[in-house]
From TrEMBL:
Residues 34-44 have a biased composition (Basic and acidic residues). It comes from the Bacteria. This is CheW-like domain-containing protein. GO terms for biological process: chemotaxis; signal transduction. Residues 23-44 are annotated as: Disordered.
Length: 406
């Protein structure tokens, strides 16, 4: 045997590829230095620190857009014939007779997109006031995003609609959508009711005379049962009804006590005979019962929304309320009582036509009074101030004149 250190050296020469591969596999891998992490850029730091806001995103053709959620007061998904009617109204620029500007967003932005059968009606505003209504195809999705200034290159992509954009929203998935900001002005003035239809309703009453007299409804401030007036004690009076009414007129607050409210007078015209004024109708002539023999000042009219299915009954209700001197608008969608409540003082609602509302009522925070109409006796559903028997014109007049609950 030879000592280890006396063994002859291995012959030197070229190493085969297979031997090199085996030798390389036996070597311990050398540690690789981890790549240095880049410091976040100033833009990334700014985005991370920026507050996130709620937006309502949607697609308009191939474009992705969004409204700031704070701008949208309420929304309603509409389809079928109702959506077609809204599109027709958008061609005229106004939402029915409400005075609200109605904007079809695709048309306003100059986009040639086909009209669908379903969309969303948005009520846009600020400070609790609705400024305009906007029609958007499809549905909107609420998301959180960081909003930045709109890049100049984006304005070229949107063409004539670029003036309606005011930023870009960065979504959590990395997508970017353009923010829409409508330049809204003051809502259009509501058209006045025709003079021939407004302020023509009269009540027929008995006030200590054999003949009935007429009272112009628009001149009344309130109607109160006499026994409910503080400080008045009623004594039985032979020949007089036990339930007399106190009619308070506008202006100086003058009042008249009547024995009975008989009903609504037929339509007629006012005639003056000597120093007296009469309501002349097809069934007779009635002296006008007014304080001091003069025409009582008219209280401020109320804004009334009639929510009922389209038909003769709704038209008759509209004519009656308009004849009382009020401004009247119509709606056939029960959701209008919630969406548009802030724009009206009183909402009349057909409870027989909308059973779900009759059972559950309406949750609303606006100060508008809601009066239900029903064929039978019915307690007031949640959110309603009173329920009046349908077709009882006198009861409806008294309900409209009743003071708002405090």
């Amino acid at each position: 045997m030879f000592p280890v250190d006396s063994l002859p050296a291995a012959p030197r020469g070229p190493v085969s590829r297979e031997a090199a591969r085996i030798a390389a596999s036996l070597r311990a891998p050398s540690p690789r230095p981890e790549p240095a992490r880049a410091e976040p850029s100033r833009i990334e730091r700014t985005r991370a620190a920026a507050p996130r806001v709620d937006i309502l995103a949607f697609a308009l053709g191939k474009l992705r857009l969004a409204f700031a959620a704070a701008q949208v007061m309420d929304s309603m998904t509409v389809s079928g014939a109702r959506w077609a009617r809204l599109l027709a109204m958008a061609d005229t620029g106004t939402l029915a007779a409400s005075g609200l500007p109605l904007i079809e967003l695709a048309a306003r932005m100059g986009l040639a997109t086909p009209r669908g059968t379903t969309g969303t009606l948005l009520l846009i505003g600020s400070g609790g006031k609705v400024r305009a209504a906007v029609l958007v195809e499809g549905e909107l999705q609420r998301q959180e995003a960081v909003v930045e200034a709109l890049p100049p290159s984006w304005r070229e992509r949107f063409g004539p609609g670029a003036h309606m954009l005011d930023g870009v929203a960065l979504l959590s998935d990395g997508a970017r959508v353009a923010m829409v900001d409508l330049p809204l002005g003051v809502a259009m003035k509501r058209p006045a009711a025709p003079a021939s239809e407004a302020d023509t309703a009269h009540l027929l009453v008995r006030a200590g005379r054999t003949q009935m007299e007429a009272v112009r409804v628009a001149s009344l401030q309130s109607v109160t049962a006499l026994e409910k007036v503080p400080g008045i004690a009623l004594l039985p009076t032979p020949g007089r009804p036990a339930r007399r009414m106190l009619l308070a007129f506008g202006g100086e607050g003058e009042a008249v006590v009547v024995d009975e409210i008989v009903g609504l007078a037929p339509q007629g015209r006012i005639e003056r005979v000597g120093g007296l004024r009469f309501l002349a109708t097809a069934t007779g002539r009635y002296r006008l019962l007014e304080p001091a023999g003069t025409q009582a000042p008219r209280p401020a009219p109320s804004r009334v929304l009639v929510t009922a299915p389209e038909g003769e009954a709704r038209s008759a209700l509209r004519d009656l309320v308009r004849a009382m001197g009020h401004e009247v608008r119509l709606a056939d969608d029960p959701r209008a009582a919630r969406l548009m409540g802030g724009r009206f003082d009183i909402i009349l609602f057909d409870l027989d036509a909308y059973g779900d509302v009759r059972e559950a009522g309406i949750a609303a925070s606006d100060p508008g009074r809601r009066i239900g109409l029903a064929a039978g006796a019915l307690p007031a559903p949640p959110g309603f101030d009173a329920v009046v028997k349908a077709g009882d014109e006198v009861a409806l007049v008294l309900a409209l004149l009743a003071p708002a609950p405090r």
